Amino acid sequence: MKFNYVLLIAVVSIFTISALGQSVYGYGGPPENNSANNYTVEIITNQESYSLGESVVFTGSVNKYDQDRSLRITIFDSSKNLISTKKTPVDTYGKFSHSVELNEKFSDGKFIVKAQYGNSKSTVNTSSFLIVSGNSSTMESSNEIPVWIKNNAGWWADGSIDDSSFVQGIQFLVQEGFMKIPITQQGDSAGSNEIPVWIKNNAGWWADGSIDDSSFVQGIQFLVQEGFMKITN
User: Is there a single domain that holds both residue 53 and residue 126?
Assistant: First the structure.
């Protein structure tokens, strides 16, 4: 009887020590909010290759939302040089979306994207995209822009024709494939319908060759974003 009692105490002690060991050393698994390994992030781009002047749209999700954590999206070139880094909000459903304009900081080549949720390296995920010359994002080099289009731009800049005539000319360029506008969110015109002066200045400078096609397209993008012009594919 005494032997059985001692044996019972020994067995209970072993299980107690084992349980404590799991608690102390983590074998039993730490609480979810204390381990970065429980947080994961997925990120994708809206397409695989782009041209300068376009925008890359990153979308994705985290497996668990935490208001105390922030998502940072960082872009490196193929030589591992930092190009861009920015914190991106995550909604309560764990979803996020972030766009980056491929401006003068970028050039042809492959770019690596790292998405990190929180400070631990355990929450990093990577993606990539290409910038390739020849994916026209402004003017089609194979098509000659009709002279009357630039004439229209010049006449519009000096007030010889109205806004509607100018917009019709630009829409013709887009519809006929002479100009390709990068992916741009189209807005609804609100407030004043008067097109800003700097857009007219751009048109005049483009007409006389003072600025290039890319600079002119930036003005057209503004018209689309502000709802002055509707672009249909």
Answer: yes
For the stretch 107-130, pLDDT in tens is: 999 999 999 998 777 678 888 999
Determine the Cα–Cα distance for residues 195 and 179; give it in Å rounded to an integer.
Answer: 20
Instruction: Give the contacts of 38 (CB within 8 A, at least 6 positions apart).
Output: 32, 63, 64
- The verdict on 104 and 160 lying in the same domain is no
Tell me the pLDDT tens digit for each residue of 178-209: 666 655 455 555 445 567 788 888 888 888 88
- The whole-angstrom separation of Cα 167 and Cα 156 is 10
* Tally of domains in the chain: 2
Tell me the pTM.
0.44
> 142 lies in a domain?
no
CB–CB of 188/228 below 8 Å? no
Please state, in angstroms and rounded to a whole number, the distance separating the CA atoms of residues 145 and 134.
18
User: In sequence order, what are the residues at sequence separation of 6 or more whose Cβ sits closer than 8 angstroms to the Cβ of residue 219?
Assistant: 198, 199, 202, 203
> What is the separation, in whole angstroms, between the first and last Cα of the chain?
90
Range of the domain at 201: 147-225
CA–CA distance, 140 with 203 (Å, rounded to integer): 18
